[in-house]
Amino acid sequence: MNVVEGTGLIVAEPHWQMLLTDEIEIEAAADYWRAVTTELRDRSLLAPANRHAIQRLVLAYVIYDRSSRIVAEQGAVTKPKRGNAKAIARLNPHFTAMREAGSDAATLEAELGLAPRRRAAATKVEKKARAARASDEFLGKAAR
């Protein structure tokens, strides 16, 4: 497990070997993890509660990459099988998976505040100080 300076103490990186089998995808997942956690850390948005959302985002990136490679090789539409008069051209299942992964990634990026449109809305939560009232002096420490 690789720890990004300052992020591993907040959110531990998953063991990608348990989720992925291709070495290239494992390396890509680790790179995506580092990029996302570094961005969230720099903006003070990285929290342990976001670990699984970040993991799903990274897996969506990896699945998108995998599916897009296959679609680039095979095309978005599969050809009908030869010799079968009833066979028709169909949408490549990898094209559908690619679109779903892209949609999932966009949703997760928005939730985590990584999407450009959502960056301004996602800010560090600050606890507001309680406004002092005249009655506070008479109620004592129990009311505060």
UniProtKB/TrEMBL annotation:
* Native source organism of the sequence: Xanthobacter aminoxidans
Top-level taxon of origin:
Bacteria
Q: What is this protein called?
A: P27 family phage terminase small subunit
Against Pfam families, the record matches this protein to: Terminase_4 (PF05119)
Q: InterPro entries, alphabetically?
A: Phage_term_ssu_P27 (IPR006448)
